[in-house]
Design brief:
This protein has 216 residues and is α/β, with parallel strands linked by helices. The chain has eight helices and five strands.
């Protein structure tokens, strides 16, 4: 039976490398569709025609040299097109949008990880997002070394995965600090050894959140 919601909902999945964002976001998408919701799954970088081209550059395994400033701006160009071409139209159509990474990742990776000025990132990101921000963010958190081992088991590492352990520890710490400052919007889920246990927590949080927007 089709489920109606009062407005579009934007939910993002964040976390260090290997935390299971793609796996859990795709699984919750499948379950919500089965439950009768109109759902769109997307990702960053990527998600738009232009974005997929930018993704090839940003995550190239045979890395194209990029300054941290160029890296930041490519992520934000990707986001600007993604928001305007994909995310905003879906929200306007009262869909549930599930996104594998969004702007919290930029603050964690380019801000905390690469040491770029957070206020400068915010100014650029405000232009790219045009006021679009997640209603809910699921932060999947786990030990950095475990996450990198998980990510490495899936094939050759991309540009982000190749960076040193100190970088990844700063990224994780950044995520935790951002979550601490935004407890109403960002829900931390500790990644369990058992994937099903993690998913149960994620699904409960999302189902409870959507419930408040359902038409009675």
């Amino acid at each position: 039976m089709a489920q109606e919601i009062m407005r579009g909902i934007f939910i993002t999945f964040e976390g260090p490398e290997g935390s299971g964002k793609s796996t859990h976001s795709k699984e919750i998408c499948s379950d919500l569709i089965k439950d009768g919701y109109d759902v769109l799954h997307t990702r960053e970088p990527g998600g738009s025609v232009l974005g997929e081209k930018i993704r090839e550059i940003l995550l190239a395994k045979d890395s194209i040299p990029l300054s941290k400033e160029a890296e930041l701006l490519l992520f934000e160009v990707d986001r600007a097109e993604h928001v305007n071409e994909v995310i905003k139209p879906a929200i306007d159509q009262k869909k549930i949008v599930l996104c594998d990474r969004f702007n919290t990742a930029t603050f964690a990776y380019q801000g905390y990880g690469l040491g770029m000025d957070l206020e400068a990132i915010k100014r650029v990101d405000d232009i790219a997002t045009s006021g679009t921000s997640p209603d809910l963010t699921i932060l999947l958190d786990l030990d950095v070394q475990k996450g990198l081992e998980r990510a490495g088991s899936k094939g050759s590492p991309d540009r982000m995965e190749k960076r040193n352990i100190d970088f990844h520890n700063r990224v994780r710490q950044g995520y935790l600090e951002i979550a601490k400052k935004n407890p109403d919007k960002i829900k931390r889920v500790s990644v369990a050894e058992n994937k099903e246990d993690t998913y149960k927590k994620v699904k409960m949080i999302i189902n409870d959140f959507i419930e408040q927007y359902k038409r009675k």
